[in-house]
Specification:
By secondary structure, this protein is mainly beta. It is built from two helices and twelve strands. A hairpin with a 5-residue loop joins strand 10 (125-130) and strand 11 (136-140).
């Protein structure tokens, strides 16, 4: 498939091609071949200006600045599956995922850092809303609900 990734594939988290090899490390920045993108399980995407930021299985964070014609990996720490990504503006954003993972970026998704969290147990986080840089709510499986004011 050439061009824009199918919206239905991203929304449903179904984007698998059994014939394509997987990338070995999702955490090193660099280009990602189109066949590898087709094989990835991507669970959410956010559009900021002309950039698309997609997250998914094995902690992949992919960036496209040409409407999905080409993709590259963002620089990010090793994480398990990422389930949601949101941006407050063109620079500041967050991603959440399994094992109570919360990542943040302040450069439009190029670089991500893990935010310190100390939940009582490692839970799958599924979605979030941040009303500003300090106030946010993260929700997840099994009734997980976390708020931050800093």
């Amino acid at each position: 498939m050439k061009g824009v990734i199918g919206a239905a594939a991203l929304c449903c988290g179904l984007f698998v091609s059994p014939s394509a090899p997987a990338q070995e490390s999702p955490h090193d920045p660099g280009p990602v071949p189109a066949v590898a993108v087709q094989r990835l399980l991507l669970l959410d995407a956010a559009r900021i200006g002309t950039r698309t930021v997609a997250v998914g299985d094995r902690g992949y964070i992919l960036l496209s600045d040409d409407q999905g014609a080409s993709w590259r990996r963002a620089k990010s720490p090793a994480t398990p599956m990422l389930t949601a990504v949101r941006f407050r503006d063109a620079k500041v954003g967050w991603a959440v995922g399994h094992d109570s993972t919360v990542l943040a970026t302040d450069d439009g998704g190029e670089n991500w850092k893990k935010l310190a969290t100390e939940p009582p147990e490692l839970l799958p986080l599924l979605d979030m809303i941040f009303v500003d840089a300090a106030h946010g709510i993260v929700v997840g499986a099994y009734g997980a609900y976390f708020e931050t004011a800093d």
